[in-house]
Amino acid sequence: MHELSLSSAIVGTVEKHAAGRRVTVVNMRIGALRQVVPDTLDFYFGFVSEGTVCEGARLEQEPIPARLRCSPCEHEWELDLPLFRCPSCGSADVKVVSGDEFEVESIEVEEVECIAQR
Amino acid sequence: MHRTKVKVVEEALDANNTIARANRADFDRASVRVVNFMSAPGAGKTTLLERAIRDLDGVRVGVLEGDVQGSMDADRLASLHVPVTQLNTDPSFGGECHLDANMVRSALPALPLEDIDLLVIENVGNLVCPAEFRVGEDARVMVSSVTEGEDKPLKYPLMFRTCELVLVNKVDLLPHLDFDLDKFLYNLDAVHPDVPRMLVSARTGEGLEEWRDWLARLAARAEVPA
Q1: Which CATH number fits domain A3-65+99-109: 3.90.940.20, 3.40.50.1470, 3.30.2320.50, 3.40.50.10470?
Q2: What single-letter DSSP state applies at residue B11?
Q3: Chain B neighbours among A 49-68 (CB < 8 Å)?
Q4: Per-residue pLDDT averaged across A18-29, rounded?
Q5: Which structural domains are found in chain B, ordered by start?
Q6: Rg (CA), chain B
Q7: Partners of residue A108 in chain B, C-beta under 8 Å
Q8: Overall pTM > 0.80
Q9: Helix, strand and coil in chain A, % to nearest 5
Q10: What is the pLDDT of residues B86-111, one digit of tens each?
């Protein structure tokens, strides 16, 4: 259900960059660790974008796998279960390499042509 | 009419984090340490807070109480004669299931920051949304009660990963439940290895001394107790 708040955050970010232009596509990069349900995000995005420059825009969600790196032994692996301990040496000193993203990567906007008046 | 692609590359939650940093700066200026207190509904946050505040000698505590509706929890805490500020997320915020930095910012003028050492922000009961939104806290404390099941760290890893202390509440009920404490701790360590944890019962008082000590140490120093 956090997808509702997350959708508002997306619209807020996009509005800043759209500068009033109508948005047709929003390209998101979403890390696996964010626990976002894609269909739910899509649904709420449609709902909160009503009346904004994002109304009718398509939300593209690129899933980013969760990868961790062990600081002591430098082992790097992709996470499928939420286990934050190195499977190679057992250390808990691990860093998230990717998977925390909730990033608006780019947007596509409609530019209105400037036609010189004769 | 033609279409243009605009590169953005911005975390959508940056706006919240910026406001959270501003809140934190205001708290720091007033020398107030802040706890973001989170759990599922019914895990015992308010009772654990009541029990801690009552005997927290020498620490001036204030509470910011976040609820979707009503002021039941705030009324309970106010009876302990500490300043309590109620923040309802409904209807003005659309019934949000969590507090965010901006809601806390809106409550700042109502908070007696000059008169307190420690502010506990009791978040809306929820294991998902509050984890996403920093509010300007020094430390995140979460309560997980033994009636909730051993699997919760694996189901809500973001919440369990991003807290500095876990209070395992209602341990007085363990003899009556199938809850496997070792399995819970094993799951907790999988998600957040070595996170400080305390076994407590707000009902019997078990572990509450340790919980009060932790709060007192946080209030006395800038850093989060290990």
Answers
A1: 3.30.2320.50
A2: E
A3: none
A4: 96
A5: 34-218 (3.40.50.300)
A6: 18
A7: 3-6
A8: yes
A9: 25, 30, 40
A10: 888 765 545 678 899 999 999 999 99
